[in-house]
């Protein structure tokens, strides 16, 4: 059993069941690099401030580096008796260099230590997620540009509504994932705050230099309140919230891919590399990847609710309940990284059935609004035009026709304003390119949106904590 760092206050050893119940080493071990990185910066700061000697600091820093490498190689045993990664690293340090290792914990607590570790972890996780979201955005733009001439039916209520460019539909997802990018960027800004030195809750009782530590670790600012520093999990909740919204967007896209790949739609074909078969039905090609993307959205929602529930009734400052923040966050990070990597690989491999899309774009009376607009341009009030076209649609349904199958004489039985140019007005290319309002589906507007998106993507600067660290 590992020796507890706080054993001086207690007469009895910790019950084995308590050790197992309270231990977090089995999941927070993934923080070891951040824990060691933070400890090295803290140790050097203590030496810079004259709190420990430079010789002691050199010994601690060198040994921490060795422990880092040994954990990576699996040469350090991490078990529940060590409680958490912070105690595991410090126990290993003192086992190797004796009492000098115990000086590392001067002017800090596990409360601000774990707050630091999680912020360092999240800065790197957010950086990776932002890179992947940007990759998805770039993929959508490339697809929109490649398929600029493809026309499809637009839907409301999952019913045929009006013809649109397939590229216009893709660029709607660009806008959605673009907002996700902005949310994660905002979250990164609020994560980028250095808490080490806040100690348990009241601040350190030594003349430390928190700004020096922040520079060493690549943070842009230092906490303003030590109580808030150790109890704050807002940035994790914000991350889980942004993740839930992003996964909702992924799920909506996945749902459309699933529907569109069905024989009833046959708009697209998902590559075999991203599908699976059936154990009993030889003909099956199942869209399992988008289905799982849709399904994994639920676990990300659950992680957000779990984190909100853990924190909703906590008094300030630190409470052990906050140990439960890590698993939901880790799971959300893992889910997002895997999902976004797959999404950006799967999308370019989708085959677009442009002929089917084009045929269905004018099917089921999607040109009805344009027919009403035609009458409006001939001075018929829109409500009257709406009613007239509704009657035309009813006539077509009874007679098994589409609007474009009607003759001029048939149109004129409903209103005298119809004339020869109505057929040109109902040409689907003209229908598309009349939608020139800002954000509309006209080819010129979609090309503008694609060009603007390329400029936005070019302007996205990748975040790197390493770029903000001083040279050693």
Provide structural commentary.
- The protein folds into three domains: about 5-105, Fumarase/aspartase (N-terminal domain) (Fumarase C, Chain B, domain 1, Orthogonal Bundle); about 110-200 and about 220-360 and about 460-465, Fumarase/aspartase (Central domain) (Fumarase C, Chain A, domain 2); about 360-445, Fumarase/aspartase (C-terminal domain) (Ribonucleotide Reductase Protein R1, domain 1).
- About 60% of the residues lie in helices and about 5% in strands.
- It has helices at about 15-20, 25-30, 30-50, 55-70, 85-95, 110-145, 165-190, 210-215, 225-230, 235-260, 290-310, 325-345, 355-360, 370-375, 380-400, 410, 420-425, 430-435, 445-460; strands at about 150-155, 160-165, 195, 220, 270, 350.
- The strands form three sheets. A two-stranded antiparallel ribbon has the order 1-2. Strands 3-4 form a two-stranded parallel sheet. Strands 5-6 form a two-stranded antiparallel ribbon.
- β3 (about 195), α8 and β4 form a beta-alpha-beta unit.
- It is elongated and about 100 Å long.
Per-chain topology:
Layout: H1 16-22, H2 25-28, H3 32-48, H4 54-72, H5 85-97, H6 110-146, E1 151-156, E2 159-165, H7 166-191, E3 193-194, H8 210-217, E4 221-222, H9 226-231, H10 234-260, E5 268-269, H11 288-311, H12 326-346, E6 351-352, H13 354-361, H14 368-377, H15 382-399, H16 408-412, H17 422-425, H18 428-433, H19 443-459
Helix pairs in contact: 3-4, 3-6, 3-8, 4-5, 6-7, 6-12, 6-19, 7-10, 7-19, 10-11, 10-12, 11-12, 14-15
List descriptors.
472 residues; mainly alpha; Fumarase C, Chain B, domain 1; Fumarase C, Chain A, domain 2; Ribonucleotide Reductase Protein R1, domain 1; 3 domains; two-stranded antiparallel ribbon; two-stranded parallel ribbon; 4% strand; elongated
């Amino acid at each position: 059993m590992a020796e507890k760092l706080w054993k001086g206050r207690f007469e009895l050893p910790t019950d084995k069941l308590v050790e197992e119940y309270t231990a977090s080493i089995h999941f927070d071990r993934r923080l070891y690099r951040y824990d060691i990185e933070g400890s090295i910066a803290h140790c050097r700061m203590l030496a810079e401030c004259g709190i420990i000697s430079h010789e002691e600091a050199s010994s601690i820093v060198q040994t921490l580096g060795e422990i880092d490498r040994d954990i990576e190689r699996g040469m350090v045993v991490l078990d529940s008796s060590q409680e958490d990664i912070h105690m595991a690293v410090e126990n290993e340090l003192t086992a190797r260099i004796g009492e000098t290792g115990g000086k590392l914990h001067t002017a800090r607590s596990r409360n601000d230590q774990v707050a630091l570790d999680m912020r360092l972890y999240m800065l790197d996780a957010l950086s990776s997620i932002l890179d992947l979201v940007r990759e998805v955005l770039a993929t959508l733009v490339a697809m929109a540009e490649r398929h600029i001439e493809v026309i499809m039916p637009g839907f409301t209520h999952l019913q045929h509504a009006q013809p649109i460019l397939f590229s216009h539909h893709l660029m709607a997802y660009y806008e959605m994932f673009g907002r996700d990018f902005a949310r994660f960027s905002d979250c990164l800004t609020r994560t980028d705050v250095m808490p080490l030195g806040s100690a348990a809750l009241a601040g350190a009782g030594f003349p430390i230099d928190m700004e020096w530590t922040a520079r060493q670790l690549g943070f842009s600012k230092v906490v303003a309140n030590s109580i808030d520093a150790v109890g704050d999990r807002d940035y994790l909740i914000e991350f889980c919230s942004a993740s839930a919204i992003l996964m909702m967007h992924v799920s909506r896209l996945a749902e459309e891919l699933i529907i569109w790949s069905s024989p009833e739609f046959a708009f697209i074909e998902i590559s075999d590399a991203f599908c699976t078969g059936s154990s009993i039905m030889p003909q099956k090609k199942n869209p399992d990847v988008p289905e799982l993307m849709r399904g994994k959205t639920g676990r990300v929602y659950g992680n957000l609710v779990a984190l909100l529930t853990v924190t909703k009734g906590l008094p300030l400052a630190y409470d052990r309940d906050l140990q439960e923040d890590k698993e939901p966050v880790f799971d959300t990070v893992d889910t997002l990284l895997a999902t976004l990597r797959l999404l950006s690989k799967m999308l370019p491999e989708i085959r677009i059935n442009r002929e089917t899309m084009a045929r269905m774009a004018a099917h089921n009376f999607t040109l009805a609004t344009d027919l009403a607009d035609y009458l409006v341009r001939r001075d018929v009030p829109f409500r009257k035009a709406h009613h007239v076209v509704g009657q035309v649609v009813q006539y077509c349904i009874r007679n098994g026709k589409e609007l474009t199958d009607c003759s001029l004489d048939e149109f004129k039985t409903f209103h005298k304003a119809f004339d020869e140019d109505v057929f040109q007005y109902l040409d689907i290319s003209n229908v598309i390119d009349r939608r020139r309002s800002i954000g509309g589906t006209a080819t010129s507007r979609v090309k503008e949106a694609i060009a603007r998106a390329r400029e936005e993507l070019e302007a996205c600067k990748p975040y790197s904590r390493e770029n903000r660290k001083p040279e050693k």
